[in-house]
């Protein structure tokens, strides 16, 4: 669809992400919070997107994407995450620097450019934050993962993703050397505040807050 603005595209992507995370239709308030705008502005945009057959809106039940709206949102996510890989792997940006740049690059329309970018990067399955990258057909690669907060004493895990992309959080993880691939062992859990003590392979021990452990995605290490 050629007659769609960047702002409209951003709304479609926001609706997709909210629905993906909640497993339900996106509410007006949730969209407003994600887009940092008023509920009234969201209502106006939803009407516009509905007229273009990109969303379905049910009063008091929320907003969902049509097949075409889903296609556009998935393409945006694909471009955004491919550009993040390119910026980190090829231009040596850090993972806390790339989101805003990729937000601009994701609106480039050239399908050929995206195709060649994918080939150049050797068809990556995940972006620098551990989020899955849809392929050219819109298919995602999913893996078994869970928040670190759900790990048990004695578990040995590998960090495979983050649920918070805020630069401050990513910089904090860098200081602790808790990037993707970090190997942890759960040493202790404090029920009072939900914090946990972990051992980082080759880096010593750290106590992580409940907030940090909820936003780190991990996989259990395979036993030798």
Q: What is the total number of structural domains?
A: 3
The overall average pLDDT, rounded, is 94
CATH class call of the largest domain: Mainly Beta
Class inferred from helices and paired strands: alpha+beta
Q: Output the CATH homologous superfamily of the largest domain.
A: Ferrous iron transport protein A (FeoA)
Cα-based radius of gyration, to the nearest Å:
19 Å
In one word, what is the shape? globular
Which strand order does the major sheet show? 3-8-4-5-6-7
Helical amount among residues, as a percent range?
A: 40-55%
* Gap from first CA to last CA: 51 Å
Distinct helical segment count:
8
Q: How would you spell out the order of helices and strands? A: HHHEEHHHEEHEEEHE
CATH topology of the largest domain: SH3 type barrels
Largest sheet: 6 strands, antiparallel
CATH architectural name of the largest domain: Roll
Unreliable runs? none
DSSP E strands, number: 8
Q: Could you tell me the strand content as a percent range?
A: 15-25%
Main location: cytoplasm
Protein name: Transcriptional regulator MntR
Subcellular location: Cytoplasm
Keywords: Activator, Cytoplasm, DNA-binding, Manganese, Repressor, Transcription, Transcription regulation
Can you walk through the features of this model?
With 224 residues, the chain is an alpha+beta fold. It folds into three domains: 6-65, Arc Repressor Mutant, subunit A (Orthogonal Bundle); 77-142, Arc Repressor Mutant, subunit A; 146-220, Ferrous iron transport protein A (FeoA) (SH3 type barrels, Roll), CATH 2.30.30.90. 42% of the residues lie in helices and 17% in strands. The protein is built from eight helices and eight strands; from the N terminus they run αααββαααββαβββαβ. It has a six-stranded antiparallel sheet with strand order 3-8-4-5-6-7. Strand 1 and strand 2 (62-65) form a beta hairpin. Helix 1 crosses helix 4 and helix 4 packs across helix 5. The longest helix is centred in the middle third of the chain and has 23 residues, at 67-89. The chain is globular and about 55 Å long. It starts with 5 loop residues before the first helix and ends with a strand. The mean pLDDT is 94. In the presence of manganese, represses expression of mntH and mntS. Up-regulates expression of mntP. Its main location: cytoplasm. It comes from Haliscomenobacter hydrossis (strain ATCC 27775 / DSM 1100 / LMG 10767 / O). This is Transcriptional regulator MntR. It is found in: Cytoplasm.
